[in-house]
Amino acid sequence: MCMREDEVQEIVKHFGNGVDEVSKELEEYVDKVVLLKSRYVFTWKDKKQEYGFFTCCKNTMRTPGLPHKSKVRCPWCKGEVQVIKERYKSKYLIDDGRFIWYEKSKVDPTVLVARAIYTQRDYRYDHTNVKTTYSTHAAYIFKIGNPIMLRRAWHGELYVDKFAGPDYDSGIFTNHNYKENLDNKYNAIANTELKYFKYWEWSNTIRVSSVDTLRLLNLYCRYPLIESLIKMGFGDVIESKMYSGRTYSAINWNGKTVWQMLRINGNDYKKLKAYRNKISIEFLAAYQLAKKHNSKKSIEKIEEVGQECELNRLKKILKYTSFDRAVTYIDKQLKKKTDILHSFYSANSVLLTWIDYIKDCKVLGMDLKEDSVIRPKNLYEQHQNTIKQIKVKEDREITEKIQNRAKKLNEYIYENDTYITRPIYSSKELIEEGKVLEHCVASHYSKVYANGETNIFAIRKKSEPDKPFVTMEWYGKRVIQVRKYKNLDPPEDVMEFVEEFKKEILEKNNKKKNNKKVA
Q: What is the C-alpha separation between 164 and 18, in angstroms, rounded?
């Protein structure tokens, strides 16, 4: 979302002096949790006496010959540290971590804000003066009705990215481990607009890890009624939305009540809940379709449809028949055994073939209101039949177009004492040309030739006018390619003939057309 710099700065004020501001509490959390293992004692010898510098307390003391990479206790803070002998120190010794930090807005304490922070300690150079660095990759403002995210671009500039979907934090912490301080989160949420949204109590209903929390909070700010949906057993539905999964239009996210959102009533909900405590998005969407078509199928069968059928495909079929008829028909087709290779193996395989068959019927002008058309006894066999009819229809159309094209191209016929070149007159002749000369003219050029996008001419010996010899493609005043048997270049005298054709026919015809345009 494009915003002026001053508008971005207004949003940044929610974080006080900027999104990179570091409090003592945050520093302490990083030191004791995120970078807990980033504590070392670097040892070296001076005149046979070993000394060690403890990075955690920045103190130096004599050490009794500590083994490299062993673990010891710091005598000052009593914390565990790892021994690194200076002569063995790695060139790549960098410790880092990622975490999410929650706070109350500095502008409005009732608004929850959060930051996704990357922290680092670099020990490659002077280990006596290592500093902890912090970089905020993304910042979140969880305001009811208007959640916003600030991203940090690669060049460091902040920009606003309005949450367009549940994957708004894509790229942040991808494939990385990250941490969060639960006390920090709970304290930050307390007394904000989200204080009653105690999602952590639903761990058996919906995933609530760190980044899941960001997604969930964003979704709640946009649609506060999701809290009720989760409590009602629709946690899977919310997860689908969070992770950009399919929801099959089963949820009216802008609904003002729970029932408006679910597109069902209280009695429907009791029926679903009595059968299944945890209701999936597929089950809900299948139930809605069944209800819309006044289905008499059992609740068990409806759930099976949700599990076995890709519902968006099923919706395409339901434009032509009812839910119950479609389900019964799918079951019957699954039981048919055409042969091992051509039997349907799943409900979705039936749906895919059915959809393709309906497309063919439309092309062929068949009446889809006829039950025998929309639900043939053997779907596989009938689909094979429509495929053949489509091919015949397309071949007929291409032949007609090629014949019409050839009539217009007769004015380009040219011959000398040895050769003659003329347009290909039919798709049959085009196929024969490709078959005899073993090149791809029929498979690759029939449609473009028929549609006038190129011109295909046969070059024949005058002594053998009906025998394929060389094929030429040209367009405008340019000869594109000339090929003989197996796509080889033709003899030199043929190429001389082609040059004559260009000068005497193509160039002269183009001059005539240009003169007509000028006139």
A: 24
